[in-house]
What does this fold into?
Amino acid sequence: MKIQGKMFIWLSVFILAVAIVYGLWSKEPAGTTALFLAFGLCIMVGYYLAFTARRVDTMAQDNKEADVADEAGELGFFSPHSWQPLLLGLGGAFAFLSIAVGWWLMFFSAPFILIGLFGWVFEYYRGENRTQ
It folds into this structure.
């Protein structure tokens, strides 16, 4: 995590320099504001990664002598047969489509979103997957 923090901090320094040069040269407020906001986002992420890297163990990416296999292992538990992301995706698609078509479509997307979210949260509380 240390190298990612350094990368984001150096990226924020570069974006700050670009924002200053762009702002002085173009005198255009929208692009200058966007670049300064990008600087703020990069500095926040870089500070968080550098702050967190001091409190966690050294990872393989921080070791210059590490191999690719040093970071191998289990990444987490992912549900192999869940249909809930599909429902949430359909509900989200209809919700965003309602902005363009009409707000009445939001009434049809809300049940998809609620059922998908409820099912995703509680899918391991009942049925054959209860013990996982």
Q: What stands out?
A: The CA atoms of residues 32 and 73 lie 44 Å apart. The mean pLDDT is 88. The chain has four helices and no strands. Residues 2-26 form the longest helix (25 residues).
